[in-house]
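chain below, 183 aa
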Amino acid sequence: MTKNWTPDPETAETFAAYRQAIETERALKPDVRRQAEAALKAGATGTQLARLTGMTPEVFRRMARDLDLPVDPRYAERAAASRKRPAAAEQPRPEPRERPSPTVPDWLDDFPQIAALTFAEAQDRAHQLKLDRPHWFLDNRNACTAEPKWINHAMLAADAADPENTPTIDAPATANPDRTTTD
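prediction:
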């Protein structure tokens, strides 16, 4: 990317015209909104105003809703239902559900160091294993039938059980005695 780029005259003219159009829109927008509010109060529809201004009808539907103007009788029921719904900020947040503590699979009993890893630790070590030996990792991952949440533990166990490789797993820094942490 060069710092000394200059547009050709046609491009510069197009950009200048676009910039002028944006500045004109910004200058006219307050007047257009004020006049549109008056037109809506006088009975204009959002579709009519959209055709005149080039804005979308939704702009004027929202404007009418903010002004609390009566809605076309064909849409009154739907509009009343949408007005009754509280805003997202006013809605109560659902209570978080308790996650059941996962039980450690039986096949991890042969690998106590790996079983003691939290999910986050196993994910980090499996990622390092993937970087160290990508082909081995992909071959073994495709053959792995472990439950998805235990896939990283399974890959580390496969690495530890492989007689041709030196396992990349070391003793965990902190053992997880209850083995139920779900980071």
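The chain has two domains: 10-84, 103-183. DSSP finds eight helices and no strands in the chain.
thats it, cya
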